[in-house]
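Run: sequence + NAP -> complex structure.
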Amino acid sequence: MTVTADAVAALICGVPTGLFIGGQWIDTPETIDVENPATGEVLAKVADATPEQGMLALDAAVAAQKDWAATDPRERGEILRKAFELLHARADDFALLMTLEMGKPLAEARGEVTYGAEFFRWFSEEAVRISGRYSVAPSGGTRLLTMKQPVGPVYAITPWNFPLAMGTRKIGPALAAGCTVVVKPAAQTPLTTLALAGLLTEAGVPAGVVNVITTSRSGAVSEPIIRDPRLRKLTFTGSTPVGRKLIEQSAQQVLKVSMELGGNAPFLVFADADLDKAVAGAMLAKMRNIGEACTAANRFIVHESVAEEFALKLAEKMGAMKVGPGIDDGVQVGPLIDRAAIEKVSALVADATDRGAKVLTGAKTLGDKGYFYAPTVLTDVPDSADLFAEEIFGPVAPIITFSSDEEGIALANRTEFGLVGYAFTENLSKAIRVAEALETGMVGLNQGIVSNPAAPFGGVKASGIGREGGAEGIEEYLETKYVGIAL
Ligand code: NAP
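>> structure
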């Protein structure tokens, strides 16, 4: 179905552009341009919060905290359930909005609506399952009562690459636990979060429980919020350097933090792998979200006996992908987020080829407007190449070979990051050994995607602290209190 210019204009017109504080939309004199990365054109202008307005949002969250924590769990769950239903009813609008401001193809944006909405459904169910323990002390006499309580007001900072799901993955568990939230989306993709704030209000979220601030000065606006003793939780998804800085700022108030940071995922293909399955998995692990995912396979580590066949099959599939504006029919690869992203990917590929890597497909920018990069497969990449150490965040698959399983696993773990690893083998014992040996928070065994609202998403090492989703997800927003009772 072709998306018309009128449909785009009508959709953008309907999205609020102010700050959302205490249930009110507030305009600001200064605004931020939101650009369409497929065209470079300005889509909309949104409010640009000052540090003072950031504090007003925290004031609103603090003021609403007590009542929200006292709301019946069933009621909190019903509101989240309503939000899930509304998101599904408006899936087409949310998908188009994400495609316009972020660039991903419409089919993928629809997939993100399904995935993102699922966090509201999952946590609507978790809201009524928060429980504690009662036990007798080992020495007898004293009784031990353990209860869970909402941690308190939350500051949630989200990135541009999954504009909806990174928000719902934080807002869902926070609301279910009884916490109020200030959300700060990335300045490049604020429209989805602003539309979500409107939807949450319709679902019945009371004023002040969810507040949204957009700003071009994320550091200056965030730091006073993080250093304020009334804030009790920081949840951040973004790059490792920014995450490190925020952990330092959080130390002052000894804030509870969740950090979903960068990745450098290894994708291991063993000699006994089913190569067609491995290529299908590689297409997902590499090309989902144009390669702009923290879970994107960054290093293809392939056994030397199957490397050539794997590379040729992958290059054939990646080379055949349709690149273009995400709203066009059949497009599978949209633009990168901005010019800096194109420059970074181009520089990483140039560094690899300068060091001897061979290009099987791609390795070039495309089009005369927007930020398009051709799906690229590189072989013979020396392990000294920059793209093995850095997140590529683009549609580039570099392949390196190994000869023994130990060498493959050692290569996979040779990074400061530890978000996810993928492994393809038909040997069950090997699969388990590899899953245990990978220094990552998540492993995809014979599959190229691990994201699932019912699973604990998160990393180890420099990839983060804490988990989002699954039974673990709500724990990040709860404190444990123990009461000793003398009988
Ligand atoms: P980023 O530059 O770290 O930005 C992430 C968020 O932090 C944005 O909202 C950004 O706002 C804000 N920010 C930047 N500097 C800040 C500061 N000094 N104080 C407070 N907030 C600040 O990362 P990105 O480039 O948007 O996103 C890509 C990164 O996110 C990648 O490294 C990717 O791996 C990671 N990521 C991780 C996960 C995960 O679950 N582990 C999921 C998705 C993405 P502005 O942009 O408006 O300044």
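>> summary
The chain has two domains: 5-261+463-486, 265-452. The longest strand covers residues 143-150.
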